[in-house]
Amino acid sequence: MGFVCNLNLHGIVVPIITPVNEQEKVEESKLRNQVNYVIDGGVNGILAFGSNGEFYMLDPEEMEEAFRIIVDEVNGRVPVFFGIGSIRTSRCIELAKVAEQLGADGISVIQPMFLRPTEEELYNHFKSIADSVPNLSMLLYNNPGRVGYTLSSNLVGRLAKDCENIVGMKDSSGDITQLSEFIRVTKDEQFSVMGGKDTLIYPTLAMGGCGAVCTTANIFPELVVSIYDKYVNGNLQGALEDQYKLNPVRLSMDQASFPVATKDMANLRNLDVGLPIKPNLATSGDVLEKMRLEMDKAGLL
Fold first, then answer.
1. Mind listing the pLDDT tens digit for each residue in 177-192?
2. What does DSSP say about strands 11-15 and 211-213: parallel, antiparallel, or unpaired?
3. Which residues are catalytic?
4. Contacts by 204-211 with C-beta closer than 8 Å and gap 24+?
5. For a surface tag, which of 64, 66, 111, 184 has the fewest beta carbons within 10 Å of its beta carbon?
6. What's the rounded Cα separation, in Å, for the pair 288 and 271?
7. What is the pLDDT of residue 96?
């Protein structure tokens, strides 16, 4: 019997913030609070160690600790994904097996950063990871803005066809044409494409995507989820209005250093998620004031 996917991948998945204390250790109580906040806000899934979860700052022991906390607090209410961002294939495989042992519903794997791999190298990289955990669902994560190159639609199509447990992807390219190509080449496979830009949830759904992975769902889950819910329930105008309500707020985050704006904005909303991990510093001055102003204009303070 082949792989059977038990995931109904859809809606809004949040790349959850990883709160840390002054010693930069995982803050368990704040992480548990954040889990409950986003679930109460209606999200359809949680991604640990996404870009805004500061995966590149955490060592394996810290990731294991945080993931145990998240899985325990979620307690089966929504699917939980383990984000993997190592460059080395063998290290990704080790993390994939840890994720499986810890009860992950799936893994999300970003393309190797710093390198510029050929398509065949990328194919072997992703397939090797998928083959190492044949009973675990895997998502591809395309983020050209952070790694310097994009996954091709040809590569994604090959992986969707050849690997049963590669069941979907997150595309953070911000390129609607590329997103639509990912959807087109995989439409005959059991494969789901999620957008990765909070400002493009509505267009992603209109192109045939199944949802989006949105950092602002850490802060305004009800608003972000409403875009998806209204769209799938046929209230297209309401969904579009909510998208346009969100966009200026999300765009105001771009003036801060990546990825600290998510924690900045969460703290502006009194969510108390702590500081970013150094060398990143909390935002201040005019940039922070601009974020506060846009939140206030949108009625989100």
1. 999 999 999 999 999 9
2. parallel
3. 141, 170
4. 204/179, 205/231, 205/232, 205/239, 207/176, 207/179, 207/180, 207/183, 208/180, 208/183, 209/179, 209/183, 210/9, 210/10, 210/11, 210/168, 211/9, 211/10, 211/11, 211/12, 211/13, 211/44
5. 184
6. 16
7. 98
